[in-house]
């Protein structure tokens, strides 16, 4: 038997992929499955982006690129951030990544070690906690509550900081809750962080262009007082329906950038070249598809919230962003995991247990409404029939 390093026992997983595998197995066996579990747009990547990737391959972009990404894409990211947020950023501090997860992982490896603490949202994206544990740091969750629309409380978050805190992970709009944090909470958090000048902040803003009811995205880039300790995570997967392209980016403080570049060289060398040219076309080309997707998600959001609130034992607050609903299912008398299994096996509806996103997710399920309105309505019909 191989003898694994102890640290391997600290790695978690992403349950959505496990549920997807089980759902696919059931579908292959002939069972009708509606998948409201996986968190990816059900739209195709826009044609002009696909064509840019194909052209890059035909033009001979088959080799290595700089570890930080091709210069024109880094400049394109900086220009996009300026256009969307009115903030000047240095392209030389932008790191092109193979998706969003490497930024999370690298940040935790750089600032986490035994004897330190890293704070993260709970319920939250499971890779946060997994990366923290792997780094050797102590994971410190801060609770996102239904009563606050699943936004963090700056007061509660600041109260958890200790001299051992090295990094705080933020995510708004959020996975799995769809919660969007109001600006006043960010204002209070940034003001309070003045008392903790050595604490880094990683802001996961991957759903920043998916907001509803007139909400405006609050980016941590708009707070110059923390720019020198801010790591911004964003990318193409959700906004441009490019999950399988594996393309993301992050912006790092000047003193930290050489270290993340070194990690990239040691880990993945660089992001594949044609994908980077496709990413550039996404940023500089027409944005019609982005707006159309968000409009479709907004329509589905209204449908799924209304339908979920009609299921006995369910109650669901309206998500402010992303494409997830996170209903409270305590009224069913079942645990989240048991209900997840029941709905998949008996109703043919794939959803994710709230506990897949942390202990505070007990009593909730995550529904992805990145699916058609017809499928959403049919899924709710099946759930009602199953639970009756």
TrEMBL record:
Its cofactor is pyridoxal 5'-phosphate. GO terms for biological process: amino acid metabolic process. The keyword Transferase applies. Its EC number is 2.6.1.1. It is an enzyme of class 2 (transferase). Keywords: Aminotransferase, Pyridoxal phosphate, Transferase. PANTHER family: ASPARTATE AMINOTRANSFERASE. Belongs to the class-I pyridoxal-phosphate-dependent aminotransferase family. This is aspartate transaminase.
